[in-house]
Each structure stands twice: as C-alpha cells, then as structure tokens.
From TrEMBL:
This is MarR family transcriptional regulator. It holds the Pfam family MarR. The keyword Transcription regulation applies. It comes from the Bacteria. SUPFAM superfamilies: Winged helix' DNA-binding domain (SSF46785). InterPro entries: HTH_MarR-typ, WH-like_DNA-bd_sf, WH_DNA-bd_sf.
Length: 143
C-alpha cells in the first residue's frame, strides 16, 4: 500500500480529479469544460448574474472567470452586458443556445450521482452536507 493511500487529503484530491475527468468526458460532445458547465447551471437555476456574484458563487477570481466568460460568449453560450444602472457592473445571462443546452445536458447530474454511488436523496444530502462542512472548516483553518 502506498503512503498516499492512507492520506485523507490525497483521497479528496484523487476523488476531485476523477470527478472532473468524468465531467470532462460527459461534456466533451458539447465542447464544454466543467467550469463552463457550472456557469451555465448557475445561470439556469439562479438567472442572470453579475460577474462578481458569479465569481463568488463559483469561488473563482476575475483573472480566471473573465477569460472563461469571454470564451463562452464567443461560443454563443452567454452574453455579457454593462448594467444600465451602474456601468461598472457587468451582467451575464445565457443566450438562447445556452438555455437550450439545459435540456441536452439534463442527463449529466444523474450520471455523476450514479458514478459516485449516490443512490437516493438521503445519500446525496448527507454527502453534500459533509462536503460543505469540510469546505467551511478548511476556509476557517486558512483564516
């Protein structure tokens, strides 16, 4: 047994990489990356967002998010526009093509849940709650 097999941090890292790779294979036919998919899901569920609000939700800084949104805009998935109330604020909304992808990608959450072995809402809720607690604990430890 390798020393990394006994490290919780490595197990989380490996699980994250495996999950991201699974998303990559599921999203590849649509030419989407996992972060692009997350942007679309956020816009589908929560509606148009400011760039800063989207960055907070996704835990991405503007140096990472801006190029991602630029690429999505070039691909016709989102549109960015300056707020009419405050020109310093940029708002992001899905385009018709971006909205249409919601139906085409409806199978993705179930495929991921199945790959994770999540078989019911209770399993899903427990895993999600534990991961949120872990994230909060790690952020607190960093501060």
């Amino acid at each position: 047994m390798a020393v990394t097999d006994e490290m919780l941090c490595f197990a989380l890292y490996a699980a994250t990489r495996a999950t991201t790779q699974t998303y990559r294979s599921l999203l590849e036919p649509w030419g989407l990356t996992y972060p692009q998919y997350l942007v679309l899901v956020t816009l589908w569920v929560e509606g148009p967002q400011t760039v800063s609000g989207l960055g907070e939700r996704m835990q991405l800084d503007s140096g990472t998010l801006s190029p991602l949104l630029k690429r999505m805009e070039e691909d016709g998935l989102v549109q960015r526009a300056r707020s009419t109330a405050d020109a310093r604020i940029v708002e992001v909304a899905p385009t018709e093509r971006g909205i249409a992808l919601r139906g085409e990608l409806a199978h993705v959450p179930a495929a991921i849940a199945g790959a994770m072995g999540v078989v019911g809402d209770r399993d899903d809720e427990r895993l999600l709650a534990r991961l949120h607690d872990l994230t909060a604990s790690m952020h607190a430890a960093r501060a």
